[in-house]
Every structure is written in structure tokens, then in C-alpha cells.
Amino acid sequence: MKKLSVIALVGVGLLAASCNKGKSADTAATATEQKVAESKGEVLPVDVATSVVNWKAFHKGGMAPRWGTLSVKSGDLSTEGGQLTAGNFVIDMNSIKVDPASVTEKDKKPADLEAHLKNPDFFDTAKNPTSDFKITSVTDLKDAPKDAVAGANKTVSGNLTLSGKTVNVTFPAKVDVTENSAAVNAKFTVNRADWGIKFGTSEADPAEWMISKDIEITVDVKAKK
User: Fold this and answer.
1) 194 — phi, psi (to 5°)?
2) Which of 9, 34, 82, 146 has the most Cβ atoms closer than 10 angstroms to its Cβ?
3) Cα–Cα dist 31/96, whole Å
């Protein structure tokens, strides 16, 4: 019986490894906090009504995914000569929503997960009610990775602050700039443990090891005159 249990655990481990290879968004490169890009040209306020951050999280091995949204509270994008030069946006962490379609278990409720994500196990929104992203550089992207957002044409780097900690992340993005507007759309994956959000990441604890460290983030930020 003991031998059978060991074999079963090995099988689960192999399944988890194979499922993790199937993530749909590239893992963002990370570094220490960098100098924020200087705002040049015209500064356009972010349209908070049409901007949104989508998130998707998994149990380890890609099982039982959960997904939802976060509201953009404020921000701006700077453009000069038809190019994005700088920008930032603030996320309202208390706005976090769990899509009911992602919670299929009869004994689970989206509202309960929302409350858990807001408590100190995860984002501790009472202490850190907002998160923010500040662009540090924007460069041309010649060959977009296959898992990048459709139409990706730039590489964007920026300081992402979550739960009071700041880490620089780099990812491919689709950047559109017109005379009266600017938009940034991107999809990438981060390891929440990089921001000290470690609930459920200890594989030594059988009750917790099934929670993945990966969070898939989709950014859709629009700014206009």
C-alpha cells in the first residue's frame, strides 16, 4: 500500500510538470527596481472606464484555474513623436473580482475567494489598498514570442508594486499610439513569491502544495485626451 502511494505521488508530480509546460503566457523577466522613465511629450490621462487588469491563477499543474478582474484607479501615458515614452497606472486592489464561471465546485463561493485574496495571506488590501505599475523603458520588439499578446510590437519594462514590494518586470506588449490616444495591451505570467506572497507555496505542507505560484496577468490600459 505504501509503495502504491509513492507511485501515485510520482504520477501526480509528472502530471503537474507536464501541465505547467502548457502555460499560455510567457513568464516575465524580473529584476530589481529600476529608474522610472522620464515623461516626455504629451501626457494622456488613463481612461479608467475602459481600462482593466485581468488575472488568472491556478492550482499546481494548471488544475482548477480561477480568474477575474481588477479595476484601474488612475494613471497616465506619455507620448512623443508617435511613440510611448513613459506611463503609469494604479490598481485598486479592493476591486478584485472572481469570475463565478471559474468556481465550479459546489462547496466554493466566489465571494469567499475574493475575501481570502484581500486578507494577509495574499494581498492584504487593508494595508496595501493599491498596487501600481511604472514604466521604466519601452523598446521595439522585432520577433514576438508565440505566447505574446496578438500584435505585440514593443518590449515594456516597468516597476510593478504588489503588497508593498517593488520588482521590475519585462514583457512583450502591443502599444498603439495615435494623435489623440495611446493604449498598452499585454499578457504575461509572474511568480507571486517574488513579491513575498507565499501562501500555499510550501511543498513540504501537503495541505498547501497544490496552489501554484504563477499568476497570469493581462493588462489593457487605454489613455486619451
Assistant:
1) -65, -25
2) 34
3) 26
**Homologous superfamily of 2-224:** Lipid/polyisoprenoid-binding, YceI-like (2.40.128.110)
> If you search the block for the grid coordinates 503588497, which residue do you land on?
163
Retrieve residue 59's grid coordinates.
492550482
**Distance spanning both ends of the chain, measured CA to CA:** 68
pTM (predicted TM-score): 0.85
pLDDT in tens, 123-167: 999 999 999 999 999 999 999 999 999 999 999 999 999 999 999
CA distance 104 to 181: 39
Those residues whose C-beta lies under 8 Å from the C-beta of residue 73, and which sit 6 or more positions away, are 48, 89, 90, 91, 92, 95, 130
- Grid coordinates in use for 3? 509503495
**pLDDT for residue 11:** 37
Query: Is the pLDDT assigned to residue 14 strictly greater than 90?
Result: no
Closest by CA to 212, choosing from 78, 20, 28, is 20
